[in-house]
């Protein structure tokens, strides 16, 4: 079984003295539970694993009950430390208040019970942490699987990763694309939307949110104004509602909307978003074609190629703490702009043909301290680019 790079980090944090609650957050089906179970096999500390997936939302006492059981198990085993793991914690209403109460009680009593929380909804996890648990936690973000991980685990080549993306649970289904799409749609997309967004957040127009996801995934790597988006959606709404729903989809690790890079200028009006899926499987899901046919369609494959780069950058932006934008001035464009403090990196993606781009020259004149890189034709080969952490580009 493949061991992700985060395994060593979470294992070392378990073995550290009790200081912080460890929070493992990320989208569905990226291996959060598997990672924790692997870590538990590597450490000697006694532990208890519980999942709130089937617990009713209003049953906050459930957390206190499993915590009391952990205290009893620690005492019965005559151990001086214990690890409690709670999965899908965001399903419990007011979970953070109960966790704060129990964590602080152990701190006062000198009980060495360590805690790991797992959650699929980034929005709900962040709300609970900032509202009640300030100063008590560390977050470890687990992203979608990289090309290197899919290649190592399943022997995939670059073309397969570009089209089928990085969901490990779907890897065995790619020879039957109809079945593969049904799995992605029902087990991943619909579950993420219905359980991690609609059940946990107020959404007045769920059909509009679903339509926005489908449209945004289909146009991954492209810039669309909110007014143009509204014109293509079946259910009426407004630009504020769309922006809010896009944020929910982003927090669910499904679909992001990159803003236009404006340097140090404060953007008082929301720019037209550049849609970007977190996983190219979500793009291919919307296509009425097959893997083989997509490879033979130059324009479509170019879009999938660019979206693969964007997904790689977007996933690492969450855990490496840099900002990701696009840039456009008239007919001149840079596909992606990375920003960390005062450092700027512009990335242009070329899947074939000429590598000339006048936008890069204009961008360099406007931002002379920026580093400019080309991914693809005559630049960094895509398979090499997908093996690096983009933070190394600064």
Radius of gyration, whole Å = 22 Å
- Count of DSSP H/I helices: 16
Spatial strand order of the main sheet: 7-6-8-9-10-11
Number of DSSP E strands: 11
The major sheet is characterized as: 6 strands, mixed
Distance separating the two termini: 33 Å
Can you characterise this structure?
The mean pLDDT is 91. The protein is of the alpha/beta class. It starts with 5 loop residues before the first helix and ends in a 9-residue tail after the last helix. It contains 16 helices and eleven strands. The chain is globular. Helix content is 45%, strand content 17%. The strands form two sheets. It has a six-stranded mixed beta sheet with strand order 7-6-8-9-10-11, sandwiched between helices. A five-stranded parallel beta sheet has the order 2-3-4-1-5, sandwiched between helices. α15 links the parallel β10 and β11.
Give a topology summary.
Layout: H1 6-15, E1 21-25, H2 32-42, E2 47-51, H3 61-76, E3 82-87, H4 95-109, E4 113-119, H5 122-132, E5 137-141, H6 147-154, H7 158-164, H8 177-198, H9 206-218, H10 226-232, H11 239-251, E6 255-260, E7 274-277, H12 280-284, H13 291-295, H14 298-320, E8 323-329, E9 332-340, E10 343-350, H15 358-366, E11 371-376, H16 382-385
Parallel strand pairs: 1-4, 1-5, 2-3, 3-4, 6-8, 10-11
Antiparallel strand pairs: 6-7, 8-9, 9-10
Helix pairs in contact: 1-2, 3-4, 4-5, 9-11
């Amino acid at each position: 079984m493949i061991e992700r790079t985060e395994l060593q980090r979470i294992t070392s944090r378990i073995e550290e003295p009790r200081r912080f609650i460890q929070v493992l957050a990320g989208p569905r089906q990226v291996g959060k539970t598997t990672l924790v179970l692997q870590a538990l096999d590597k450490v000697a500390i006694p532990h208890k694993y519980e999942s709130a997936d089937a617990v009713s939302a209003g049953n906050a006492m459930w957390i206190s009950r499993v915590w009391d059981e952990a205290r009893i198990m620690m005492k019965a085993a005559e151990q001086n430390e214990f690890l409690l793991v709670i999965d899908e914690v965001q399903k419990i209403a007011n979970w953070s208040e109960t966790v704060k109460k129990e964590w602080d009680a152990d701190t006062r009593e000198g009980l060495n019970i360590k805690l790991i929380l797992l959650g699929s909804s980034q929005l709900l996890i962040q709300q609970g942490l900032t509202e009640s648990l300030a100063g008590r936690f560390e977050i470890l973000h687990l992203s979608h699987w990289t090309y290197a991980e899919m290649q190592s685990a399943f022997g995939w080549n670059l073309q397969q990763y570009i089209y089928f993306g990085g969901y490990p649970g779907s890897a065995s289904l790619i020879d039957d694309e109809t079945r593969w799409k049904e799995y992605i749609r029902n087990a991943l997309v619909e579950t993420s939307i219905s359980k991690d967004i609609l059940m946990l957040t107020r959404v007045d127009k769920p059909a509009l949110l679903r339509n926005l996801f489908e449209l945004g995934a289909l146009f991954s790597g492209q810039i669309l104004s909110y007014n143009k988006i509204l014109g293509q959606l079946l259910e009426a709404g407004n630009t504020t509602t769309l922006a809010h729903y896009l944020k929910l989809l982003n927090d669910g690790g499904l679909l992001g909307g990159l803003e236009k890079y404006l340097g140090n200028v404060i953007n008082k009006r929301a720019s037209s978003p550049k849609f970007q899926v977190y996983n190219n499987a979500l793009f291919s899901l919307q296509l009425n074609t097959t893997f083989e046919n997509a490879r033979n369609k130059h324009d479509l494959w170019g879009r999938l190629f660019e979206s693969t780069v964007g997904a790689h950058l977007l996933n690492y932006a969450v855990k490496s703490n840099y900002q990701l934008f696009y840039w456009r001035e008239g007919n001149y464009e840079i596909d992606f702009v990375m920003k960390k403090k005062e450092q700027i990196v512009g990335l242009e993606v070329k899947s074939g043909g000429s590598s000339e781009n006048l936008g890069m020259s204009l961008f360099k004149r406007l931002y002379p301290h920026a580093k400019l890189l080309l991914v693809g034709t005559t630049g960094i080969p895509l398979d090499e680019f997908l093996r690096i952490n983009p933070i190394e580009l600064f």
